[in-house]
Each structure stands twice: as C-alpha cells, then as structure tokens.
Specification:
Blueprint lengths: L3 E3 L3 H11 L5 H19 L5 E7 L4 E7 L4 E7 L6 H7 L4 E2 L1 E6 L6 E7 L8 E5 L2 E2 L3 H12 L5 E8 L1 H10 L4 E7 L2 E2 L5 E2 L5 H6 L3
Parallel strand pairs: 1-11, 4-5, 4-6, 4-8, 8-10, 9-10, 10-11
Antiparallel strand pairs: 2-3, 6-7, 12-13
The structure holds 1-O-pyrophosphono-5-O-phosphono-alpha-D-ribofuranose and uracil.
Length: 209
Amino acid sequence: MSKVVIMDHPLIQHKIGMIRRKETGTKDFRQAISEIAMLICYEATRNLPLEEVEIETPICRAKAKALSGKKLAVVPILRAGLGMVDGMLQLIPNAKVGHIGLYRDPDSLKPVEYYCKLPADCAQRQVFVVDPMLATGGSSVAAIQMLKDRGCRQIHFLCIIAAPEGLRAMEEAHPDVDLYVGALDERLNEHGYIVPGLGDAGDRIFGTR
Ligand code: PRP
Ligand code: URA
C-alpha cells in the first residue's frame, strides 16, 4: 500500500491559496511553486537515514548526526515539474537531477513520452519525482514506470495538487511509491482539469498562455 501524506502545514496551505488565484502572475506563481516544493521536500525527506559522526565544536569533541551518504535524485516531469526543482535543491543540494518529458494529449488525456535523461547511477539513488499536478494520474504513472524500467526502486512522488482519480491511479499502479501531496482537491472536470485546481500549471509557470 502506498503511504499518502496530505500536507496540513499552514504555510503550505497559504501558498497553495495564492497559486490558485487566477490573478496571481507568472513571477509570484513561479516563486510560490518553488517555496511549496521546498516545504513538501522537508516532509518527504523526514525518513532519510542518519549516522552518528564524531565532530569538534569550538568547545569540545562531540557526537553529531549526519545524513548517511544516501544518494538522492530529483526527477521533474517536464514541463511543469521544472518549477519544483530549485525548491527541492535548496534542501538537498547534492541531489542529481534527471528529466522525464511527457505531455498529456488534450483529446485522449493519455501521456505522450518525448524525453528521458537520468543520472547514470539512478538505479542506486533514492528518487524524488516532482510534478505540481496529479490529475488523471496518467503522466505520473507513466513516468514512474519509466524509472522502474531503468532499475529505480526507491521512488517517492511529490505533487502540489492532486485529484482523487490521480491518487487512486497511482496507488493501483505503484503501491510501493509514497505520495506527498500539497492539497487533495474535489474532482476532475470534463476536460481532465482539477477542480478547483489552479488551471494549467505549465502555462502559469512559464507564462505561455
Ligand atoms: C500537466 C501536469 C502533469 C499532467 C497531469 O502537464 O504538469 O504532468 O498534466 O495530468 P495527468 O495526471 O492527467 O496526466 P502537461 O501535460 O500539461 O504538460 P506541460 O507540463 O508540458 O504543460
Ligand atoms: N494539468 C494541469 O496543469 N492542470 C490540471 O488541472 C490538470 C492537468
């Protein structure tokens, strides 16, 4: 069974409220997406393993904690996932970054693959897949399958807004993947857009509409 964590932190809820507003412009939208990604990253990395290390403070020798050398990768689903990368790297700056290119065919709503470039040792890394929107789930289910086909096993998925339909599709297809969700919305409309949602995330991040 997937672990599903829906964020309840007031800062995340406030910033999601900002990006839902139709009058929020590209600059503020982009900045809020990045900040929300950083806050969700904080939750999604809660279980990273630690080890004890010997250090010297200005006062004395002491034992301290350090991340136990676990290798991490951030994989955005293009395009909109790119908006979450900087926020993720603020907290995990040593992570490598892979890219998966998928777009959703507007008629069939099925994902169409156009790009995949991953770190060479991605299969040995804990992978954090990021995409602001989980609607039908077609894109994220396909992206995670692409990672599994290339040997990745430890995969987490982070999104900002999810529809119940997308969550169900992910849980069914990839029950081994933990899901970190900024907000769970009501439903999809007849065009496959999340209601109330925030519109087209890629267009709002890049100012293309
Ligand atoms: C959006 C979004 C997801 C996908 C979600 O991307 O960023 O990748 O739709 O929908 P789904 O869950 O029904 O697959 P889009 O296809 O609009 O591409 P873009 O990011 O390049 O704009
Ligand atoms: N993709 C988006 O960008 N927004 C939605 O509501 C659904 C899919």
